[in-house]
Design a protein that fits this description.
The protein is of the alpha/beta class. The protein is about 30% helix and about 25% strand. The protein is globular.
């Protein structure tokens, strides 16, 4: 998989189609905990006056930030013009920008959010350094990512293998500690629900794997385990 290839990532997120397919199947943990909600709570707890979301996708999280922090300035960036357009339609200030070269001054934000996107950066540590640069000295980075065995059972059943990335539940903490003094983590066991076999096949097809998927047919709905971590770094 070309998870960090710039051209491949641009094509993946040129429109919202693949992203929406992947987002549609996810449900909270059995205890009702949702990673995005936990990330939102971490940002809100910091009482920021100015917040940046890097890699904002369709703007769902940025919109939640704006609603939860009505007195704060929320800014969102993404490399996809279409996703920036969708984010702006939610009333959020959004612009096209490169996470490796953020168009903001040093110490510009109290909080930065990076939701399921750091594994795509062609230079992870440059991206983390940029996030640290635009944060004020007491600011926080909230980063959400998946574990190495995230949907591993589904991928193995379909003839593939678990997806190991450069920023995961397993290696994300070590990467963050190269740029931040304090890193905490919250690990969640999310669940993916597929209404039928076709839905599971569509999900697999939404990823740019170099795999010819071959998921054995099954009847009715099926659930697979997800593994997600919410990191807070300061």
């Amino acid at each position: 998989m070309s998870m960090t290839d710039r051209d491949h990532v641009h094509e993946q997120y040129r429109t919202e189609v693949h992203l929406e397919v992947r987002q549609s199947v996810w449900h909270p943990t059995r205890e009702g905990r949702d990673p995005a909600t936990e990330a939102l709570a971490a940002v809100v707890a910091a009482a920021p006056r100015r917040v940046l979301e890097i890699g904002c996708g369709t703007g769902a999280f940025a919109g939640r930030l704006a609603n939860a922090l009505p007195d704060a300035e929320v800014v969102a960036v993404d490399q996809s013009a279409r996703l920036v357009e969708l984010t702006a339609s939610r009333g959020v200030e959004a612009r096209v920008a490169d996470a490796l070269d953020l168009p903001f001054a040093d110490d510009a934000f109290d909080a930065v959010a990076a939701m399921w996107m750091l594994y795509h950066l062609p230079d992870l540590h440059r991206g983390l350094a940029e996030a640290r640069r635009v944060l004020r000295p007491d600011g926080i980075l909230v980063a959400v990512t998946n574990g190495d065995d995230h949907l591993g059972d589904l991928r193995r059943e379909a003839g593939g293998a678990p997806l190991h990335t450069q920023f995961s539940s397993e290696n994300g903490e070590a990467a963050l500690r190269e740029h931040f003094d304090v890193v905490t983590r919250d690990d969640l066991s999310t669940r993916a629900f597929f209404a039928d076999h076709n839905a599971a096949v569509a999900y697999l097809a939404s990823w740019p794997d170099d795999v010819t998927w071959s998921l054995p047919p099954f009847e009715g709905p099926r659930e697979y385990a997800g593994h997600v971590t919410v990191f807070v770094a300061r």
